[in-house]
Amino acid sequence: MTTALLRPLALLAVLAGSGATTALAQTDPIKFGKPEMKDFEAKNFVADSTAEAVVLCDYGRSRFEYIEGDFRVVFDRITRIKILKKSGYDWATVKVPLYHSAGREEKLVNLRGYTYNLVNNQIAKEKFDDAGVFKEEANSNVTLRKFTLPNVREGAVIEYAYTVMSDFTFNFQDWQFQESIPVRWSEYRTSMPTYFDYKIMMQGYVPLAVSEHGEGSMQATVRQSGGYTGGGFDTQRVSGSASTAVIPVKTHRWAAKDVPAFRTEPFMTSVRDYVSRIDFELAGVHWEGQPYRAVADTWDKINNDLLADENFGMQLKRGGFLKEQLTPLLAKITDPAARVAAVHDLVRKSVKYNGRDLYYSTASLRKAYDQHRGNAADVNLLLIAALREAGFQANPVLLSTRDHGLVNPDLMPLLSRFNYVVAHVSLPEGKEMLLDATEELVPCGMLPTRCLNSIGRLIMPAAADSRWISLAPQQRLTEYQQIHLTLDDKGGYTGKIHSEHGGYAGLAQRDLLREKGEKKFVEEMLHGREGWNVSKYQFAQRDALDKPLSFDYEMSMTAGDAQAGLLYLRPLQHFGNSKNPFVHENRQFPVDFGCPVDETLMMTLTLPAGYEVEELPKAAAVTLPDNGGRFMYQVQPAANGTLQLVSRLSLSRAVYSAEEYANLREFYRLVVAKQAEQIVLKKKS
Amino acid sequence: MVFYLKHTCHAALLALGLLAGSHALAGGPPPKYPVADIPGSLRENAHAVVRLSDETLLVKSAGRTIETVRRAITILDEAGAHHAQELVYYDQLSSVSYLRGSAYAADGRLLRTLKASEIGDISLSDGFSLASDGRGRVADLRQPVYPYTVEFEYEVNSTNTLFYSTWQPQAQEQLSVEQATFRVLTPTELPLRYQERDLPAGTAAARTSVSAALQRYEWQVRNLAAVEQEPDGPPVGETTPVVFTAPTQFEVQGHVGTFTTWQALGLWNYQLNAGRDELPPAVQEKIRALVQGETDERARIRKVYEWLQANTRYISVQLGIGGWQTYPATSVAATGYGDCKALTNYCQALLKTAGITGYSALVRANKEDIRTEFPSQQFNHVVLCVPLQKSAKPDTVWLECTNQTNPFGYMSSFTGNRHALLVTPQGGRMVRTPQYTAADNRRERLADVYLDAQGSATATIRTRRSGLEQDDYEGMAGSRNLADQKKALAEHLPLANFSISKLSYTQDRRAAVPVITETLGLTLPGWASVSGRRAFVTPNLLSRWHALPATVGERRTPIWLENAFSYADTVRIHVPAGFKPENLPAPVQLSTAFGTYSSQVQAQADGTLLYVRRLLMPRTRFPRTEYPAYQDFRRRISAADKAQIVLLKTDA
């Protein structure tokens, strides 16, 4: 695969009519129950020798049926997998998710399965017994059916097929072409009445071998039910009648060939952003003779619907109960920013975030407030309501968290792309702020790390004012250390260190400090810093969340045995970067840190009396292309037998492309090597 | 790797608290559990304080118990917030009669009471079972402002009397206890069996007769200060007060038994699973053909075991009594899968066909060993034990039946070095699983490092691991693909900058203990740090040992090391032309009660530098008082492991 083919999220251009009606006329890529001898020949799996299993063929079809006046979606799937190693046995256990809502549910029917083993050069066939299908709740709308195939051995080929019947036309089956094992052939065909307008979204880094689109028709039987007319002795039976309607359909066929195994990499957002797949969203329906009815719609409509929604916009109007708390709180504060911070603080301390990420409230803000507990929307909608109550222009911003996947503004408007809401507030002089009150340690004006995911949608009272808004953080991950080391003539030293953890580093360190407590925090810092003895330490600005967490300590380190005449030391050993964070050679996907990084080290080294410098590391300056970042290192003698050492590292972007990975890795290699360089001191003769 | 028998995870020691029923009264109820009442000594080092814990086990009959729990706990900070969430486990054999809860502010004012609609009911799928009936009632009373107090109260009605309560009010670190009480009410004809451990002086059981028909046992502890997990120490749960209880008689789904001796417990197990070893004739024929002509007993067992490994796999299904009773052998024959009970039973049946008698052996896998002095259901796994009949000296083959790649006869750290209960027709018999010593658990590493004048290097490293030392590599070596192998290794290599140029694993499963040999090629940019005319090299390439963190105060717990082992490292450094050593580290030799260590670097005639390191740790348990000496031993090893070679440019 060449990187030129890498395609991030893109709207698939659906070319009507180009493929005529051929899309579904193709023969099936697989026949269920008919294994092929070539799948039992070792030579055909040489290229996959390191894989635990290989998907030979994954074939899905979605079509519509018209039954009793209603359309339903029928999804058929056949999957055949070659098991190469024992560690691949898990592929023989299958989970099928089924959606249910309001008393209706998707149904799994016609589940069949076989395991094929080669026995004496013959393919032996073992049938799956569907008594072994177990049910498990995944969440309140999804149950899983789980089953496992019998007699799976190394070299076996397993195969299963099933059909899912669904009344939920909005929940059209999506398709994933890529797995954590190689896929030889993955094909999905769809056929949907032209009444249904689905938007089709393609994403991933794997090129398609087939992408065909056409038109065709399906037949629907429309029944007139029979019954009786008249009454009493005059009752007459009227037989039912059936007529056949021909419904035009759009057909699609997509296939990917020889898809490499998907591997996760460090510094990624959700896997969903990277894996090759195709998603469907119902945009509207267009019945014959009726005007087009949008289902998922324009931003304007989403905006208005949200604002009218009981669990969203309506809640924002019910913040009156907060007045009692807010009035005394704000009575003496005049500065707008300080007023915002006070409201933020009040909400943060009133409702505990329960860890659930949703963009809508599940009950009411009042209830969340009374229970002191709620999901992300309960907390942040309450924040917005409180800010409005305090006289601010505050509005919701919809976003998708890093775990939930990237939002692409070029795609059709879709509420399901979002799973979170934060507050936007306009301040005098055109200033604006994004606020989140779910975290005890995230200051006013900063978003939790999970929210750092490109862009969000600002929902304004007038739909026309709504817009996309960048979630790029104002804050960086900032580490600052100011170090005074005094060396003795054996290579030991004492040090006074002032360090500041700012922005996202402050958040991370406060989090750790809260979890560990001061004593354990210090103990943990000492891991890997053998021989260190910390005599004094002090944290400051622990609760001043908008300022860096400062940490001052004094330490000493006694050296083992004295060296005759020469002292070798690696002054940044315990203060700088000791390991390249990019341990892997290659990268398929972008590197996403969430926010830019700044690390500054300023060191003053006092030499032991009677010693002078024999060797000093050379100064260095390294930059990443396109202003991606820079590293600067310098050590030089200063007054009174001291050395001044400065090391600065900055990464100016939150995201680097896969193509930039090699540079990033080399950049860190140089940083680590430079910070490990030694100073050699010599006893004056 | 987890292959558990079903175990009633008594849902993490849940708690209770009296419910404020009268808060509607004018003026409000009196404050409860004001935080100001907590003694300072209990706040120290604690994230949460158990204010009151009251747990009662009522034995209704041999087949039914009712467990009633009330607990109030003050959450001091975010790190203790998980104590404000409650999960009460139940399954096909038990039910939750009620779960209630309230939250109180620091001053003791009632904040709120849980509504029935807020109590969730979730499936506790264990993640590896195809099916399991475990479920939980859950409640969440976390609050946004600290400190606060929660109370929970619940009752579990159980018809599974295999397990009685284990009372451990302080199961976690950084949790202190103000007051906790445990009582058991049991019919006189069903006397309680119990075992106490680490109870504070003077807290033995108080036994009283409530009536001629009913006995009461009671324990109480007060003011337990928070404790912390210590490095190289036992888990906190192994060191805090606990009372284990067990039935004398029990009945589960019509299966009656007694637990007073291991013999009886084993017998019950035997009877529960007896008669489930019938094999289809076709399988019997296969096995007979497989071992035909093989006269050596061990070789016959091996053949059967390898056939089992090639033809079955582990799939867990834990429903009701199925948590303890095996699926019949015919079921495994038909599907080729089963859980630990089913696969062990199947293997036993296969061996029987081959004329060999094996016994299932109950163990507590992957956790601390069972308490052999207290016969009770403490097991979570089962393996097969085959005493050799024809061997000249007593010999036994142990078989792990749930793992398709496990070497024949090897128990690994999962089930080795512990006790097991043999299940025989005559009842249970306590035996030991294989012991793996420092001579078995070896790591031998041979490296060649080629350094260039710029400080970069390439290295080839061959590491041979045996016994328990190879356990962690078994999954990786046996089956993971190369990309995953490289990824896993890269994340653990203790090197600043490197690329893996070559990686392969070979396994020897036929040796007395299994062996995995890793061949690794590395490029190491900037391995030596070059400053001017000097280059600095740490010859201990991959085997550096860290010192232990400094201790504050006295060591509380004994030293528990994972297993005995021995390490040998030899690194040959090929020095580039134009460099010669300016300074070599002095040799180090340490000989202590904990183990012996040596390291040295020698310049060889061919110009290379040879680094040799040896570490032997033959024992694993030492008393608390030895800790400072152990720390010193580790400190000296760490210092020696960091020693540097200084090379000096000779030209220019």
TrEMBL record, chain A:
The keyword Ribonucleoprotein does not apply. Gene3D superfamilies: 2.60.120.1130, 2.60.40.3140, 3.10.620.30. InterPro entries: DUF3857, Papain-like_cys_pep_sf, Transglutaminase-like. Keywords: Signal. The keyword Phosphoprotein does not apply. It comes from the Bacteria. SUPFAM superfamilies: Cysteine proteinases (SSF54001). Residues 1-25 form the signal peptide. Residues 330-404 form the Transglutaminase-like domain. It holds the Pfam family DUF3857. Residues 75-204 form the DUF3857 domain. This is Transglutaminase-like superfamily protein.
From TrEMBL, chain B:
Keywords: Signal. The keyword Transport does not apply. SUPFAM superfamilies: Cysteine proteinases. InterPro entries: DUF3857, Papain-like_cys_pep_sf. Residues 1-26 form the signal peptide. It holds the Pfam family DUF3857. The keyword Cytoplasm does not apply. Residues 62-227 form the DUF3857 domain. This is Transglutaminase-like superfamily protein. It comes from Hymenobacter psychrotolerans DSM 18569.
